[in-house]
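To whoever is on call:

I kicked off a structure prediction for a single chain this morning and the downstream step that reads the tokens threw a length-mismatch warning. I double-checked the sequence; it's 354 residues and nothing unusual in it as far as I can see. Pasting both halves so you can look.
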Amino acid sequence: MATRIKNAFICNRLPQYHIDSEAIHYCVPQIGDVGLFRVESALNQYLKDPLGGSHYLFDGDLITAAFGNRYATNQYEGYIPESPQLYLDLIARGGVVGLIKSANATFNRPIVKLKLEGFLRDESGSIVNTIQYGELLPFKPNAIKTKVLLSVGTSMDSGKTTTAANACAGLKKKGFSAAYIKLTGTAFPKDVRYVYDRGADMACDFSDLGFPSTYLLDLPLILSIYQTLIDRVVKQSSPDYIIVEIADGILQRETHMLLSHPSFMQTVHGVILSCGDSLGTLTSIRLLEQLKIHPLAVSGLFTASDLLIREVRQQIEVPILNAEQLLSGELLQELNKISHSSDSSYPDFLQERA
């Protein structure tokens, strides 16, 4: 009986393949390259499958997964090896493999250890790669006409996805259509499914183009991902608004590159900032102001506390919207202010989009 192979979430579009067990000794993996791995130490962990369900992992299991990098301040920092390596780590449950460099000291999940058994090769003999480079479109900022709202935050787990989901639901309540794109991060189905189930007309992310993660990608490639996903959403659902989430905090490499890029920000109608605490809120607003970005609203984890809201409100003029206010559609009031304001405190990109 053939041993069953458990495919990871990121390996949802595998072609016909054969296993090259010799390549493990000389091939240096690239982002998106797919390997066959044997689980050396599972420790009651699981792997997300191509449909977003879970494969429970046991020692000795065979899995397919893709090489990638990871930036997750609350979990792991991991990288694709720079030389052939047999023993590796599962650095994300969506099926991302690399070598863990550091882990948050408070993150207690055991690391799943893997052994590379071979690379997958397609019928042409090329190593199977999850990334659909042929589907990427060139970035054309002037072609993006739909109103894009950017969901950014102070850090990982500051509430960006919840803010995006609630904003979508609130806009829908007010009679507008809304879609969601997660532009950067590490492949995992939870955020897209959460926002879609909360009411977005459509939800997608970079992993739909086969990217295991976006960490350390060049800016032109990220902008191509952005253009491609925007184009898909517009063609499939023609939303009034597209809420685009950028992972991690505003100091993170890709996030900061995007926020600093004038042509990218030209496509953005407004920015929603999610924060975890009061001091982080004040600091983030100042950092954004240095980039000439004036958030249209602040939300996030800190808004779960009335006390923190009052603390922040004494220090800033930016509107604060908690989950209930976003769900009720109060964000629309702030959007209307942008459309009718000639206040020079709004950045140039908002003035041009108004």
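Update from on-call: the warning came from a stale cache, not from the record. Cleared it. Sanity check on the structure: Residues 342-347, 349-354 have pLDDT under 50 and may be disordered.
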